[in-house]
Amino acid sequence: MRIGFKLSWILFASIFISCKDKPVDEAFVDTKAPDSIREVKKAEEKSRPRTKEDIVLKKELTFDKYTLEDNYPYKDTTRIFQWDKIKEKLAYVENFQSEKITYAILQNYKNKNGEAPTVKNFVRNEYTRVADTLGVERYQSAPLYIPGETQTPTIYGRDGSLVKLISSDTLDMVRIQGISFSGTWDVPKRYIKTLGDNIRFNHIVVVDVTNQNITLIEKSGSEWFIRSMNPATSGVHNPPYAMETPVGLFIIQENKTKMFYQKDGSTEIEGYAPYASRFTNGGYIHGVPTNNPEGIIIEYSPTLGTIPRSHMCVRTASSHAKLIFDTAKPLQSLVFVID
């Protein structure tokens, strides 16, 4: 009995000592591990690609003229602002801006950097102009070559397209990765304008060619704010002169207080459009055209928000065009054209 008692006591004492020591280790794990786990989860969350569900988009208008509702009647149907699709575009911006990128844009307005060579498989479109199989015209575009192939380009990159620089822009052929389009390509350096790696695109203009509306969106902190919701008129496919506004992502390249335009088929100046912001080729966001080079600015037109009728450009109320002109600065602001 005594031997059994002693053994029981020894066993109890060893368990007591073991249990007494164990909480010290558990306390270490309990106090340190959660912080570590939280840091890991925080890092994982930060690096996780954003989706439309992550985008906080608030309506705080700074322009309150001609404002449309989220859903609004048009003839015998309903038109909308495609907020889900817009959030997808904003998530895309969030994702590429989370990387360390040296930005650049493709430029060849009016072929000022030289007419692009003919691509391998070209077509002639309804405007009788050479285009690639994706429908991008040779005129005003940059030639894109498969890396390592320097004889003939494969496709064209639109003027105003945003890209990521992979190689030095001092080389004769610069390697890029598309942001406005997919793939990795080589392009002659004369078609490249380098923007640097410290740009933040906090102003986005979204043009909806299906619903014929336009919105200005501004980022402040971690949130995006809707600043305007207005009717617009996009370009119409009507050869040989009028062209539809191309769908895609572009960067605003220049502003013109008055963008003078010529009469179709002539070099005669027919009139001007006020507060014009050019984003691709001859495509501008501008106010209501005045068919008189010396005429006064026209504020609004009842055709806004109806059907496409412009020559690639996007029309909106002149005071709204001025808001975009003043807010969305060249080489710092993006334009999404959605359908």
- Measured between the Cα atoms of the first and last residue, the distance is 91 Å
Which structural class should the secondary elements be placed in?
alpha+beta
* Annotated CATH architecture of the largest domain: Beta Barrel
**CATH fold-level label of the largest domain:** L,D-transpeptidase catalytic domain-like
Count of domain modules: 2
Largest sheet, in brief, is:
6 strands, mixed
Name of the CATH first level of the largest domain:
Mainly Beta
Helices, by number, come to 3
Helicity, as a percent range: 10-25%
Q: Tell me the strand percentage band.
A: 25-35%
Mean pLDDT: 90
* Computed Rg: 29 Å
**SSE order:** HEEEHEEEEEEEEEEEEEEEEEHE
* Unreliable residue runs: 1-31
Question: What spatial form do the alpha-carbon principal axes imply?
Answer: globular
Please give the structural blueprint.
Blueprint: H1 2-47, E1 57-59, E2 71-74, E3 77-80, H2 83-97, E4 103-106, E5 123-124, E6 130-131, E7 142-144, E8 155-157, E9 162-165, E10 173-178, E11 184-188, E12 192-196, E13 203-208, E14 213-220, E15 223-231, E16 248-251, E17 254-262, E18 269-280, E19 283-286, E20 314-315, H3 318-327, E21 333-338
Write structural notes for this entry:
- The chain folds into 2 domains: 164 residues, L,D-transpeptidase catalytic domain-like, CATH 2.40.440.10; 94 residues, SH3 type barrels.
- The N terminus is likely disordered.
- It is built from 3 helices and 21 strands.
- A hairpin with a 4-residue loop joins β13 and β14.
- The protein is globular.
- The chain has a 6-stranded mixed sheet with strand order 1-15-14-13-21-16, sandwiched between helices.
- The longest helix is centred in the first third of the chain and has 46 residues.
- The N and C termini lie far apart (91 Å).
- It has 339 residues and is α+β, with helices and mostly antiparallel strands.
